[in-house]
Amino acid sequence: MSSSLRRRSVAPTSLVLVLSLGVSSFAYISGRYTHVKHSPTCATLKYGAHGPAVARIQSFVGTRPDGDFGPATAAAVRKWQRHHHLRTTGAIGPATWAALPQDVALDACSRPAHGTGTSMTCAYLHQGSTGPAVKVLQRRVRAAVDGAFGPLTRAAVARAQRAAKLPGHGIVGPATWAALGLSGTPACRAVPRHHLSAHAKAVRAVARQVVALAARLHDHRARTHNPIARAALHFARQQKGKPYVWGGVGPKGYDCSGLMMRAYAKAGVRIPRVANDQYDAGEPVLLSHVRAGDLVFHASDLTNPRTIYHVGMYVGHAKVLDAPYTGAFIGTRSLWTAGLLPVVVRPASQLNFPLRPGKSGDSVARLQRALNRHHARLTVDGAYGPMTRKAVNRWKKHHHLKPNGVVRRRTWVLLF
Predict the structure, then answer these.
(1) Neighbours of 19 (CB within 10 A)
(2) What CA–CA distances, in Å, run from 355 to 185, 222, 265?
(3) How far, in Å, CA of 215 to CA of 257, rounded?
(4) pLDDT value, residue 166
(5) Exposed site from 89, 148, 264, 358, fewest CB < 10 Å?
(6) Could you give the CA distance from residue 391 to residue 68 in angstroms, rounded to a whole number?
(7) Cα–Cα dist 399/368, whole Å
(8) Directed axis angle between helix 102-109 and helix 52-61, to 10°?
């Protein structure tokens, strides 16, 4: 959610209306938002819906989490509904929202969703309300998550409203959901009218760019001669067939970012644990210039990399190697363009080669740590001095390499 929304204040005259009219004052506030129907729970998701909320449901019901609610997703939902003695609608409606495990419902209802299969409803909540939308609200305002809107929840909501310069009456509608950063999610499919048009245009522009860039990749082999990228790719390929494990960092299973982190660690490059942070872990490169070993990212908002939810490793010919979702296995798949960002990241560019006496910095510090794993006992100070040179030459002699004190990419990979 943008900071401008968080800071929005209500005009003095409307503030008087809110305080005097109570619940009915939401008619004024919601007039500034896209028209939605009142709902006691999260918006229905069905065929034609798109976004991370759909992807979370897909992961749970065991179909590909591409964020597009199509026939396969509807069939998987119907199967789950039959198993739990629910009406087999193939849609995530009120009864299905209520039957979903709490963690699934919380995650899906608080993630963005859009498209023709997403009902234009907003959960209007007040003391006495119950259900999944209440749980989403409680988690965001840091109240006990029990699904029952009681006095403590009302007090927490009122505090959040006052912090956002809204009337603190404890009743939740579009303005409060916006202040909590949950507009455009199944909790409230309402976004400010002026924001909708500008943002939608920006997203469409990026999506068109991604499709155009990705179309060039099918005949583009994108080989890499960088031994660090090749080493990372080799490790990732060795993990094929292992299961996706939420939070997994190996060796028995991985999640998407855990696999990328371990693959590059094997090649001597440290990247962050979370996909969102991995986007900053190397040189940014336009998608049309992607090479094998580069990281590709998917985000719920194409204009905001902070909404990244998936990462994979490019292997060439418009294919990626990744750990996709719960119930699936690590493998190579076609690159899909839904949510794909137009920029990829090259972690191998982090290191500044060749390393030789006189150099300093993080690359030298990493070299020293690697040599210490081979019993060098160096002080890790990031400065390539005589002791570091001596340790490098000792290691190179042991591995039948020319002891010239210079560390290049191929030598670096052997160290790890």
Answers:
(1) 12
(2) 49, 27, 19
(3) 25
(4) 84
(5) 358
(6) 54
(7) 17
(8) 160
User: Does residue 30 register a pLDDT over 60?
Assistant: no
The whole-angstrom separation of Cα 55 and Cα 64 is 8
Q: Which residue has the tokens 């309300």?
A: 129
Task: List the structure tokens of 154.
Answer: 């009302």
Q: What is the pLDDT of residues 309-320, one digit of tens each?
A: 889 999 998 999
Query: For 133-160, what is each residue's pLDDT tens digit?
Result: 999 999 999 999 999 999 999 999 999 9
As a whole number of Å, the CA-based R_g of the chain is: 26
The angle formed by the CA atoms of residues 363, 366 and 371, to the nearest 5 degrees, is: 125
Give the mean pLDDT of 172-182: 87
The pTM assigned to this predicted structure is 0.55
- 257-268: per-residue pLDDT in tens? 999 999 999 888
Reported as a pLDDT band with limits 50, 70 and 90, residue 20 is: very low
**Which string of DSSP letters, residue by residue, matches 92-131?**
B-HHHHHHS-HHHHHHHHTS--EETTB--EEE-B-TT-BS
Strand partners, 130: 148
Unique residue bearing structure tokens 């798109």: 50
Q: Which amino acid is at 122?
A: C
Q: Closest Cα to residue 154, out of 144, 169, 176?
A: 169
